[in-house]
Specification:
Length: about 450
């Protein structure tokens, strides 16, 4: 069989097993088995389709071999199909988790099917993903079918890369798979029978308990992310969900618990959030990040939370240093100044670089409004200290404006007042602090 071209014969000989069937019989079995069989190459193209596909869907396989497998899939199911094939391609050999989706027939209708994928990309005689699709439009009932489905479910449950558990009415783990045991850092035997609430780290257990309580009334709560310590003693972020599966409204309900490792996704989100809210040069907040912190502060009742204030810092003589020594030296100076401001204020205060040589500090909380001017004076003294750079010692000053923060006041209003006060200082020669009252 040549992937991407016309198929010749599908080799069904298992690796390392003596062939007992006459030549060609195995291929004949695949051709006429009750399920549709497709081979998808590494580019997502159909390299082989058995005769059952023609009977069920009505299209000639010659029309599909060489085309993208996603041409068969309902547009709403393409995402799930792509995720399933991608997972199968990257997770090594073996049977993958079945999924249900809809495929197109020759008349333009849609057939619900269940697909199970096996990764044989590294098998020289196949070099593709073998997809077995079962037509669900006329699913048979009966004990035999139920038994097959049960065995399939148990295989999927046990072999799923996602942590799964069956949880009893007392919220203890009745059954779990190996993936959940690895995430939980204990063996299946140790975790079976233990309270599900013990799974996350201590700091996340209250929130996890609220999550478990959220399924009261039979509704599944929204998924949350919590931390666990895995078998390698690493802290992992997992996205957890739980769904009640009681068979009657008056019966004690069991639940299916699902835990998916999202540590890489969580780390990426944190990196993207940091990049979106912080200044690349200094590591301080940028205007977006500062605005978010400010909004949380002004939402509080200032009468009970204590006073807060904005401090606007506009460096004096920075342009001369930048023009004389170049932008690289100017950047070095900004990094030093940013570090001095950060070390002078308290850990509870937010510090941002909002322009080339402009900084903004949110002082919260303050024991009294006048404390803002005192702290701004210490910032000015720190900024005015000589700075040792690659070109030698340089000095800058600062024009600083201070204004109180009122509950519910937009940042633009307070920033305008503080900026105006700093501007008055600069016009008067700089290197001073001026305060302004809220209007």
């Amino acid at each position: 069989m040549t992937l991407g071209g016309a198929p010749t014969t599908l080799v069904c000989q298992p690796v390392g097993v003596e062939r007992n069937l006459p030549e060609g019989v195995a291929d004949l079995v695949v051709e006429h088995m009750s399920d549709m069989v497709l081979v998808i190459d590494s580019l997502g193209r159909i390299a082989y389709a058995n005769h059952t596909g023609e009977l069920v869907l009505g299209w000639s396989r010659e029309d599909w071999v060489g085309r993208s497998a996603f041409d068969l899939v309902h547009p709403d199911d393409v995402g799930a199909a792509a995720e399933s094939l991608a997972t199968a391609s990257t997770s090594g050999p073996g049977i993958k988790q079945p999924i249900e989706l809809r495929v197109r027939d020759a008349d333009g209708g849609w057939h619900p099917v269940e697909i199970i994928t096996s990764n044989l990309l590294d098998e020289p005689t196949v070099r593709g993903l073998v997809v077995v699709a079962r037509d669900l439009s006329a699913r048979a009932d009966g004990l035999e079918v139920a038994a097959v489905e049960r065995r399939r479910f148990e295989r999927v449950f046990d072999q799923s890369p996602i942590g799964l558990a069956l949880v009893g009415p007392d919220d203890r783990i009745v059954r779990l798979n190996d993936a959940l045991a690895r995430l939980g850092g204990r063996s299946q035997a140790d975790l079976a029978g233990s309270p599900l609430a013990d799974l996350p780290v201590e700091d996340d257990r209250d929130r996890f308990g609220e999550f478990l309580a959220g399924r009261d009334g039979g509704a599944a709560p929204d998924p949350i992310e919590v931390r666990v310590v895995d078998v390698d003693e690493r802290v992992r972020w997992v996205r957890v969900s739980i769904s009640p599966v009681g068979s009657g409204p008056d019966e004690a309900e069991y639940s299916v618990f699902r835990a998916e490792d999202v540590s890489e996704e969580h780390a990426l989100r944190e990196q993207l959030l940091y990049a979106a809210t912080h200044d690349d040069l200094t590591g301080l907040l940028n205007r977006t990040g500062f605005h978010s912190v400010y909004d949380h502060v002004v939402e509080r009742d200032r009468s009970s939370a204590g006073a807060a204030a904005l401090v606007f810092i506009d460096l004096d003589d920075f342009k001369e240093v930048n023009d004389r020594h170049g932008h690289e030296v100017g950047d070095q100076l900004l990094e030093v100044v940013a570090g001095r401001i950060r070390r002078t204020v308290r850990t509870s205060d937010a510090v941002a670089r909002i322009g080339g040589d402009e900084f903004l500090v949110l002082l919260d909380p303050l024991s009294e409004p006048t404390a803002a001017s005192d702290l701004a004076g210490r910032v000015l003294a720190a900024v005015r200290e000589p700075v040792e750079l690659s070109v030698g010692v340089v000095r800058v000053g600062a024009s600083i404006g201070v204004t109180p923060v009122r509950s519910g006041e937009p940042l633009s209003a307070g920033l305008n007042r503080a900026d105006s006060a700093a501007y008055d200082v600069k016009r008067s020669g700089g290197n001073a602090v001026a305060g302004t009252a809220a209007t």
